[in-house]
Amino acid sequence: MGSNNTDQHKHSIATFAALKTAIANDEEQLVKELLADEPMQELEKSYLLDLAHLNNNRTIIKLLEDIPEK
Predict the structure, then answer these.
(1) Origin, by domain of life (predicted)?
(2) Taking the CB of residue 60, how many other CB atoms lie within 10 A of it?
(3) pLDDT tens-place string over residues 9-49
(4) Which residues contact 29 (CB under 8 A, 6 or more apart)?
């Protein structure tokens, strides 16, 4: 079981890194695909929202605001 949990953690880290890059590059469709309406930790969501606000992309900001928190 430990390796499954580790694999999920690695996937989570990779997804978060991909989200940061997609947000920075204003890739709305990729952000939508990566989010996939999965709940997210409050701190992660807050960080990604701050990043989205830097680019002032309202679509990405809305996508992030609509994601439920864990």
Answers:
(1) Bacteria
(2) 25
(3) 665 889 999 999 999 999 999 999 999 888 999 999 999 99
(4) none
Given a contact cutoff of 8 angstroms between Cβ atoms, the answer to whether 31 and 60 are in contact is: yes
| C-alpha span between 48 and 10 (Å, rounded) | 18
- The Cα 5–Cα 13 span in angstroms is 12
Which is nearest to 42 in space by CA: 20, 66, 68?
68
Closest CA to 43 of 17, 69, 20, 65: 69
- Distance of CA 31 to CAs 2, 3, 47, 53, 58, Å? 29, 27, 14, 14, 13
Q: Is 38 left (phi over 0), alpha (psi -120 to 50) or beta?
A: beta
